[in-house]
Specification:
CATH superfamily of the largest domain: GntR ligand-binding domain-like
Strand content: under 5%
Largest sheet: 2 strands, antiparallel
Number of strands: 2
Number of helices: 9
Order of helices and strands: HHHEEHHHHHH
Radius of gyration: 19 Å
Helix content: over 70%
Number of domains: 2
Shape: globular
Strand order of the largest sheet: 1-2
Structural class: mainly alpha
Length: 217
């Protein structure tokens, strides 16, 4: 197998392992044994080794003494620190989205918010989570700033990982109300109101996480 083919297999293995982590099939703390994974995925060890290294680089896994690579675990205190950074980035993304995006963004956000509301009404947890993430994704993509998008993508990866063990919500109705406030500010064309609404949303979540961290201390 040439280098290009090996890289393609490694990318495929990485995506499969990443999805197993997000679905909980590979739980936090689970060992990422290269021989065992290669056997279960029916591939050679080399692309699995590359994929596991990629997971470590993306902080979805970490190296532990005598155990090797394991699925990473993010606690409430660590996640609260991530949200402290996320608050600033989400605010910046919302402000830039107003300055750079047109009416198409507003229409898309209205559609996602409607999907979010339907999911909450039917208690569809998976759809609720998907709509929540989609709302934030649309805003950051509309920011037009590649660095903001990259950093928030990395934050979102950490949040998805943390959701396996830590509740990252103060209630779905609160999230919808916060998203509606962000949308209203974006629709009004007020970049600073959009920034403040986005920051207030993440600040509220971070406050919940800090309380959880204190209770678990």
């Amino acid at each position: 197998m040439d280098g290009t083919a090996t890289a393609r297999v490694a990318d495929s293995v990485y995506e499969r392992l990443r999805e197993k982590i997000f679905t909980g099939e590979l739980a936090p703390g689970a060992r990422l044994s290269v021989p065992a994974l290669a056997e279960s995925l029916e591939v050679s060890r080399s692309p699995v080794r590359d994929a596991v290294l990629h997971l470590v680089q993306d902080r979805l896994a970490r190296e532990e003494p005598r155990r090797g690579a394991v699925v990473a675990r993010i606690g409430a205190a660590e996640l609260a620190a991530i949200y402290e950074v996320r608050e600033v980035l989400e605010g910046l993304a919302a402000r830039l989205a107003v300055e750079n995006a047109g009416r198409r963004l507003v229409r898309a956000l209205h559609e996602v918010l409607a999907e979010h509301e339907r999911a909450v009404r039917t208690a569809d947890i998976a759809a609720t989570t998907e709509a929540d993430m989609r709302f934030h994704s649309l805003v950051r993509e509309a920011s037009g700033n590649a660095e903001v998008i990259r950093l928030l993508d990395e934050v979102q990866t950490q949040v998805r990982l943390a959701m396996r063990t830590t509740t990252v919500t103060a209630g779905p109705r609160h999230a919808i109300d916060d998203h509606r406030a962000i949308l209203t500010a974006i629709e009004s064309g007020d970049p600073f109101a959009a920034e403040q609404a986005a920051r207030a949303h993440i600040f509220r979540l971070r406050t919940v996480l800090l309380r959880q961290a204190d209770e678990g201390a």
